Amino acid sequence: MGFKFKLGPLGIYRQLHQYTGQTLAPHTAIFHLYSSAPYSEVTWHVIHSGTVVEYGLFVKHCKVEVYLLELKLCENSDPTNELTCHFSKADAIATIEKEMRQLFSIPSEKETRLWSRYMSNAYEQVSNLDSTVQDAGLYHGQVLLIEVKNEDGTWPRQPFPAKVSGFSYSCRESPSQSQPGICGLSNLGNTCFMNSALQCLSNTPLLTEYFLEDKYEAEINHDNPLGMRGEIAEAYAELIKQMWSGRHSHVAPRMFKTQVGRFAPQFSGYQQQDSQELLAFLLDGLHEDLNRVKKKPYLELKDANGRPDSVVAKEAWENHRLRNDSIIVDIFHGLFKSTLVCPKCSKVSVTFDPFCYLTLPLPLKKDRSMDVSLVFAGLHRRPTQYRVVVPMMGAVSDLCEALSKLSKIPAENMVVTDVYNHRFHKIFQMDEGLSHIMPKDNIFVYEVCKSSEDGAECITLSVYFREKRIRQPSTSSGTVLCGQPLLISVPKHKLTLDHLYNVVLEQIGHYIKFPLTKEYSNVCLDRGICNGSSGSCEVEEMEHQDGDEEGREKASEPESCQSEGCAHDLLGKEGQHHKKHLFTFSLVNSYGTSERNSITTEGKLLKLNSYATLAIDLDPDTRKLLFDEQESQAFEKDASMLQSQKKKTNVALKDCIELFTTMETLGEHDPWYCPNCKKHQQATKKFDLWSLPRILVVHLKRFSYNRYWRDKLDTVVEFPIRDLSMSEFVCDPTADPYVYDLIAVSNHYGAMGVGHYTAYAKNKVNGKWYYFDDSSVSMASEDQIVTKAAYVLFYQRRDSKQHIAPSLPAESELASEECDGMDTN
């Protein structure tokens, strides 16, 4: 295979700009790749020799910048006059300021300030001119405003009071004093996942009081090599103070997101992310930034060796605290007990490990019901709908076996398809997972014969129906797909045009109108050959191996109609001369949109591959005259369709905890190294809870992944708002009672990878529940909280000391807020 490269012409740059709507960075080279292999497609590629943008502070991610960032520039005196310009993410803010001075004719001696606008009335000053566009957190379409100092030394815009730490946040002043903590967070572009997690943490009283009372300042660990130099803790503290000031209806957490993106590049862009993953990063980042241990000692792990659990657990916790001592450990950390047992030598290994949150599996359904339509190969039999029960993680073969029990059709004679828009969207293989079939898919199962009665090999062909249309100047095709596609099975030695014609007639015979007109009166609906003119397709003669002359002779001999109920009997045998075919064939692609060649020679074998696609072309008059449209769409319903589908059952939170603590056997690819056997073994493993934290974070594992299945589980998990007793799951016999009350919930609506995040949270000052949907905040009631969207739960241990809120502005009535409606970001 040979390849050639060619630089693209200038027109390609314009085409790419029109196609993507974005501007290519300078020094971008475009080439396309030629391959001498057949059917290869010419593909344009973009390469770059210019700017490489670096993401992250500790974990470096380098990306070639292909498209420049679009920014909208305007003056403070005329903010409606926006000029669109493009910059590299590596450009300094000073470069943008210089460009704006030139665009708006601002003299160099005039003092200026830059502001970024996030909402209609939300502005944030961009004060560090040495930072890059990337570090400043500017995004595509961002509006930048330049402000010129007045002659009297004042500024037209009054800035928000500067913070000691240097952080500032875009805020919207509340028209009246509002309840502290009842503050929304602006969506900066697919950042609802971050807003949801932040609202849950903000309404965790023990943590919020710690930051509002400035206790964090004395504990920031700037030198921790595992931390973020204290910058995450400082950014979070400033955000919490804004949210709990009582002065703002919502805040834009721009600088907080920028700081998070610097240390965790996966959160630096504006793609939808996972609120639990952001929460895990933030808790770990705050812990390391606030770790009171300045120099972590080296500790050697010891095996239990039969010692009492209480001794081993105490040792593990003390060792953990020697290296990890922060407010996060104080509040969020608990202790697991892990027990491994070797299946060969019965070696028991017990370890105790700290955890910051519980990830609980949801009980999976073992089976699912599917509605499918079976298309029979027999004459005059309508397709029938069946409801089958199949394993959730089963294969297509399981579907066929279940259908075979109901229909008595052998499973090996079935082909499962997904029909969409009058064609086969997909033809499934027997070993494919059923996870590829979605509930809304239109599944048709066809009865086909893999071999004929005499043992001859058969091939299976796809047949589409098309109606001929008068070609319009604006259309590229003279046919449109219609009706239900067919899968037909034909013996190879009978694969002639006439035999193919009659096999199709047999399949569609039950919806041909009778009596036929004189013009079509000699149509046979049996497997016998109808003599007459050919269809409009070209044929290649089948190549036969030596000794196959007999088969060729048989293939060319006409067969007589001998089946009972043949159309000859129905129509009378007086017209033995065929006058006109009902339809013609075309060999087309799998979409039925383009013809490859045509069949014109009759009596000779067609050279077709299995699952080749043929189209039956009907003119509108013939279709209307001869075909019963109502009958063609008619289905029978099997008794199984009367069975009601299983209703989705709710699951109790305790069921998830029991599943988490159930003993399991390690997988073949995840064995445990047994120190006695000196080899890896598939040991049994069991998790238990030894001690629980003051704030228990429960992550419901709604997103399921395996070889076949990638899905979100929308099971409703019934979790208590108050009085969650965890004592029965704690194996420490000396532990005090563990009773928890719910304080926050992170919700996820939609499917995996998309959707929207919101939060419910209980305000620690007035004890009322609120619903946080980005910048919108509204009152909520307890009966609204338990839904299938619940994703991360925050519980506070009841016997935790009741902390009194620090001095805050006087409480006032919560201003009525209009809910903006659910955002799909």
Automatic annotation (TrEMBL):
Q: Name one GO cellular component term.
A: nucleus
**Keyword terms, alphabetized:** Cytoplasm, Hydrolase, Metal-binding, Nucleus, Protease, Repeat, Thiol protease, Ubl conjugation pathway, Zinc
For this chain's UniProt record, which GO biological process terms are given?
A: protein deubiquitination; proteolysis
**Pfam families listed in its UniProt record:** Ubiquitin_3 (PF14836), UCH (PF00443)
Ranges where the USP domain occurs? 183-798
Q: What is its EC number?
A: 3.4.19.12
Any idea what this protein is called? Ubiquitin carboxyl-terminal hydrolase
Native source species: Chelydra serpentina
